[in-house]
Amino acid sequence: MLRQVVAVSSMSLRSIPQRLGASIVVVIGITAVVAVLVSVFTMAGSLTSSLIAVGSADRVIVLRSGANFVEGASMLPLDTAAIVASAPGVARTAEGRGAVTADLVTAVNRPRRLNGALRSLSVRGVGAESFFVRPEIVLVEGRRFTRGLREAIVGRSAQSEFAGLDIGAQIKLRDSLWTIVGVFTTGDATETGLITDVDTLASTYGVGFVNSVTARLETPAAFDALKAALDANPTLSVDVYREPDYYVQDAAELNDLFFFVTYVVCTIMAAGALVGALNTMYAAVSSRAVEIATLRALGFGATGIVASIVVESLGLAALGAVAGSAISWLVFSGDPVSIGGGSGTLITTLEITPRTLLTGLFWACAVGFVGALFPAVRAARLPLATALRAT
Fold first, then answer.
1. Which of 85, 130, 269, 276 could form a disulfide with 126 if both were Cys (CB 3.0 to 4.6 A apart)?
2. Spatial distance between the Cα atoms of 333 and 20, rounded to a whole number of angstroms
3. Residue 9 and residue 311: Cα distance in Å, rounded?
4. Rounded Cα distance, 193 and 107, in Å
5. Pairing, β 151-155 against β 176-185
C-alpha cells in the first residue's frame, strides 16, 4: 500500500508542469494568505515585546482609578506626586528626596522623514527626579533641558522617524516654540517622543493635573507596602501597578486587537484561497479522469489516488507558504514601524520569528489539505466506467 501511495504521489507531482496555470493560481492564493498572516503576527509580536520591555520591577505607576491602563485617560491632582513621595517603600535620591516623577502626556503632529505624512509624536512632561527614576534614559547628544524653559530632548527612534527633530530645531507646541537641545536613548519604546519639564508643559497647555506618577522603589518587595499606603489614603482614588504588570496588560490588550484582526482577515482570505484550491483541484481531477481511471484499472487503490491529490495540494501549499513568508521577510523584517495613539506614537523594529513562520506554514497546509480532501474523495469514488469514458 505504501509503495502505491509513493508511486502515485510521485507521478502526480511530476505532472504539475502540465497543469502549471491552475497550480500557480493555488500558490498565489496561499501566498497572499501567508503573507498577511505572517506580517500581522510579526507586527503584533514586535509591538508587544516593545511594550513589555519598558517595565522595570523596581518601579510602580500610579493612575487615576478607572483609567483602565490608559495613561492619557488618567487625571491626577497636582499634589499626588508629593503624597506618593512620602509613602513607605519609595527610594530616595542622594539629596533625600523621594524618587518620584509626575508625568503629563500629550502629542503633536509631525511629518515623517519617509514620506512627509503627518503622524502623532508623543510629548512627555516629567518631574525633577525623572532621570533618577528612569536611569535607562541616557543622553547621547547635546544636553538636558532646563526646567522652566521651553526646551526638550528627543528620543533617537523618534528622531529617526520624524523630520525636523535635530538639535537646535524648533517645534510648535500650542502657540509657543520649543527648542530641541538633546538626544536620548533608552532601548525601548520610551524613545518614541520628546521629554520636557512637566510644569512648563502644563503651563503651556493650561492644565491643572498630571496623567501619572511613577515611583522608584527601594526594592521590588516594597511594592505591597506602598500600594497599601496609597489605597488607605482617603484623599486619593488611584490604581497602583508594578510597571511590568502595567505594560503586560497594555500589551495584552494590543495583542487581543491584533490577533482578532489577524484571524478575521486571514480567515476570510483563507476561505477565498480554499474556494480557489477546491475549484482548481476539482478541475485538475476532471482533466486527469482518464489517467486516474487507468491507474485504478491497473490495480492502484483509492487510497493511493487520494494520497496523490492531497500530497500535490500540500506541496503547492508549502510553496505558497515559502513565497508568502519570503515576501513578509523582505518587506517587514528589521524595519521600524510606528502606531499613533492618543498620547503619542509607539515605534519598534519588526522581527519575524521562527514561530510565526511555522504558524504561516500550518495555515497554508491546512488550506491545502482541506482544499484537496473533497476532490480526492470524489476522484476515489468516481465510477471506473464513467472515468474511462471522460475526454
1. 130
2. 31
3. 6
4. 9
5. parallel
Distance CA 303, CA 87 (A): 74
Give dist(CA 291, CA 359) in Å, integer. 36
pTM above 0.85, yes or no: no
Q: What is the mean pLDDT of each successive set of 10 residues along the chain, which is 391 residues long? A: 60 63 76 77 62 74 89 92 95 94 94 87 94 94 96 93 93 93 86 93 94 95 95 93 80 62 66 66 64 65 73 83 84 54 47 78 82 73 60 48
What is the spatial distance between Cα 22 and Cα 13, in angstroms, rounded to a whole number?
14
Distance in angstroms (rounded) separating the CA atoms of residues 359 and 341: 29
What separation in angstroms does the CA of 299 have from each of 188, 288, 293, 381?
Answer: 65, 17, 10, 15
Helix (H, G, I), strand (E, B) or coil at 236: coil
d(CA 132, CA 144): 13
| 234 Cβ neighbours under 8 A, 6+ residues apart | none
CA–CA dist 200, 151 (Å, integer) = 9
Question: What does the pLDDT read at residue 343?
Answer: 39
Rounded distance between C-alpha atoms, residue 66 and residue 239, angstroms: 8
Residue-range domain boundaries for the chain: 2-52+250-389, 66-236
The Cα 218–Cα 223 span in angstroms is 9
Count of alpha carbons within 13 Å of 336, Cβ hemisphere only?
Answer: 18
* pLDDT value at residue 348: 54
pLDDT at 262: 60
Buried b / exposed e along 274-293 (16+ C-beta atoms within 10 A):
bebbbebbeebbeebbeebb
Tally of residues, the chain:
391
Contact indicator for 224, 242 with CB cutoff of 8 Å = no
Question: Are 270 and 33 within 8 A, CB to CB?
Answer: yes
What DSSP string runs through 273-317? Answer: HHHHHHHHHHHHHHHTHHHHHHHHHTT--HHHHHHHHHHHHHHHH
